[in-house]
Amino acid sequence: MRTYGSRIALAAFSALAAGAVFTAPAEATVFNQAVSVQSKASIGKDGTITLSGTYRCELPSPEGTIQVRAALVQDDVHLGLSGGEAVCDGKDHAWHAHGTLGYTPQVHAGPAKATAELQEIHFSGIMPSSLDTVAADEKVVEIVDHR
User: Fold this and answer.
1) Burial (CB count <10 Å: 0-12, 13-18, 19+), residue 92
2) How many CA atoms lie within 13 A of 23 on its CB side?
3) In a designed cystine with 68, which of 16, 51, 83, 136 is the match (CB 3.0 to 4.6 A)?
């Protein structure tokens, strides 16, 4: 029963995160939170796209966790990427977000708009109750294709 509840929570969280990737202001920051996107993204030989950067955050509230979310937009194709859960200790950390081009084969070498966000997720029990963007960066990056 616990696994089913975790899957529901993950699905609900994913829906919240997907909607938030393109709606937050580009320069939002709270306290000592920061995130940046590197100027290059790459497509690996296996069709995996990787975007990276750095982040810094302080401990989230006791009811929350912070994650890195990233997205690429190229020629009206939107690709959401997960950078995973953040380590919030006030120090700079690298993040890497990976995605597959299986559903977005139109993504190619060349310029694309990249967005990275630090998102604080608050929970009510096992369900996410709110999602706040605490830092964001947006820039045009160059996608390099290694296939």
Assistant:
1) exposed
2) 8
3) 83
> Which helix (DSSP H) or strand (DSSP E) does residue 104 occupy?
none
For residue 116, CA distances in Å to 7, 62, 63, 84, 139 come to: 25, 24, 23, 12, 9
What CATH number is given to the structural domain containing 53? 2.60.40.10
What are phi and psi for residue 38, nearest 5 degrees? -70, 160
Measured CA to CA, the distance from residue 9 to residue 38 in angstroms comes to: 31
Length of the chain measured in residues? 147
Q: How many domains does the chain have?
A: 1
Using the structure block, give the residue that is written with the tokens 């953040």: 86
Tokens of residue 26, six digits: 């580009």
The pTM of the full predicted model, rounded to 2 decimals, is 0.74
Over residues 1-57, the pLDDT tens digits come to: 444 443 344 444 444 444 444 334 334 445 689 999 999 999 999 999 999 999 999
Containing domain of residue 81, as a range? 2-145
